[in-house]
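For the sake of transparency, this paper describes our internal protein records without simplification. The record that follows is passed on verbatim for readers who wish to inspect the format:
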Amino acid sequence: MSEGQEVPPVGDAAQPAFVLEPGMPYVTGWAEADVAAGVLRRELAACGLAERVPLVRAEVTAAGVGVVELGRVTPATARVLAGLLAAARTGPAGQAGPDDQPAQGPGFARPCSRAA
């Protein structure tokens, strides 16, 4: 160090590469997101989609809000996910109204069953 330069702090006094806001519930937000990501990963695996959506992970925003990162998927995987959501939305009896039709066509998924 040359004369006049400040010695960088070490240990507890050191600042991270980015400064977190005091009192922000980062751990709580991330933990919530981590639980949700785990649930999503298990359901994707039960539907045989775990390898098609491999980047599911917990994150936290600068405001301390937990979020789940889903990553990118192929168009085919997006169609499968859309089909599963449509099947869930219409329910087991398929009670969609005239303006509420489930997605159909090649590549759209039917409801999956939970792996035994």
Q: What stands out?
A: The longest helix spans residues 26-46. The mean pLDDT is 76. The chain has two domains: 23-73, 74-116. The helical segments are 26-46, 75-90.
